[in-house]
Amino acid sequence: MKYTADEMGEVINMLSWEDLDIRSVTLSVNTLYAVSDSPERSLEKLSYLQGPLTRFSEAVDHVQEKLGVKIVTKRVAVSPVQYFLEPIPDTEYALRLGRKLDEIAFKSRIDYIGGFSAYADRGLGRGSYVLLLSLHEVMNSTQRLSGMLNSASTQEGLNVDAVKMFVDEIMKMSPYASSRVAIMANSPQDSPFVPSAHHGRGMPNASINIAVSGPGAIVGAIRRSRPSTFQELYEVVKKASFKVTRLGELVGRTVSEELGVQMGSVDLSLAPSPAVRDSVAEIVESMGISKIGGHGSVTALALLMDAVKKGGSMATNLVGGLSSAFIPVSEDSIMANRMKEGYLEVNDLLAMSAVCNSGIDMVGVSRDEGHDKVTALILDVLSMGLILNKILGVRVIPLDGKPGDEVDLGGLLGKVVIARLKPVDVRDFTSKTGFMPTPVKRLETG
Amino acid sequence: METAIVVVIGADKPGIVAGISSKLAERNVNIIDITQTVLRGIFTMIMVVDLDTGNVGIGKLREELQAKGKELGVEVLVYHGEVFKFMERV
């Protein structure tokens, strides 16, 4: 097949200078075979994972070498640990499970292993209760393990008690530990994104999910084309997004062929990394909002997200995960700077959550703000997910310090800025217990 | 046919084309297409090569070409042909 020099130049430019790469290849694997009423037996059965995970790791390395495309992380998603804890609801066992998974990931050179997770939208079961009780200890004593608590869904309601327990736990975590847990509304079953990745119900035994990263490629396309109408802008983003997603599709298919595991889905999200030229905020700023957080940011993000979805959906049949634009604050160098400079506030992130779906992600909060304000902040995001019937998550990092301070976590996590929360007492509201009933949207579905 | 795209970029000087293509010949990798320009002193060459004729895997070939590039003072990138097919054609 012949290519024009322009076409080749475009691809080379995207891959070499605009940081287009594959953020993660995630092997989602059913681990329920190892559920047992004997801790020793279940840990021993989990050890069988070592072989397939090592083969997966090698396959990803091989595909990276073959295609010449950078694959940033290798991840594994296992069945929610909640199910393991049902027959043995014991925090000591939860700790051993968490450490075992962490160890398996380390030995097979997997960057993250997701699945220390539970669903508790309506109430806490034996398994989810023990998982929550052990969460801080497990996360503080592991490096690669990640977990998620789904505590709200449009189908079931919002479990405020679970949110409060979750906040109690993250307050006891180190910054590195809390960056590996999220609380969510309407969590999907096939997310390749840590911390929400887990092997959900209704899935085959194993599948390969892909997450792409290409904000730099979109920024490059916008800057080159200098659009003067919104339709032109839309078109530019759509086309670039098609190409970004297509690369994910290729990598997914190649890994899946190599490993003999079926292809799961490609997540159509644009996700940033702290590297310069790999920022979602920069896309918004390249559209003409000189500082993200300024008025118009929500519209710019809405336009971006819709165009990304339209372009991406043509590039793969298997759309999955969270599919949107991610705006984690610390992982995006421009977002982190704008927050520090005061252009971006927590409520701006909340407004943006209405049009994208990372919610409030990688935002530092001062431990001095107290549990109630953090609980209320999480409730705001989760109820938006509930009412708008969309996936939303919260990942806050409790830190010692004052609003405006920043802590460098390094690597993909970047610099966490402590956000200013509203100086308003909400204790009377958050002291109420129980769960919020399902919204009227639930009635529409029968 | 399994193809690879070889991109060479750097300051122009004699011997770049010869250096890279002799390395390919050494490995019996056939050049299918080649385009080369010099813009304001910056040398750019893009080659489409056939991996099937060669006696080397793409990973090893990339390594060898990049080592050669270092000798010549140019940057060498090697991508698989599928990447271009997927991103530019539906």
TrEMBL record, chain A:
NCBIfam families linked to this entry: PRK05313.1
Name of the protein in its database record: DUF711 family protein
From TrEMBL, chain B:
Domain ACT intervals: 5-79
Record-linked Gene3D superfamilies: 3.30.70.260
Coiled-coil residue spans: none
Family according to the record: Belongs to the UPF0237 family.
NCBIfam families to which the protein is assigned, alphabetical: PRK00194.1
PANTHER family: UPF0237 PROTEIN MJ1558
Designated name of the protein: UPF0237 protein GWK48_07575
Species of provenance: Metallosphaera tengchongensis
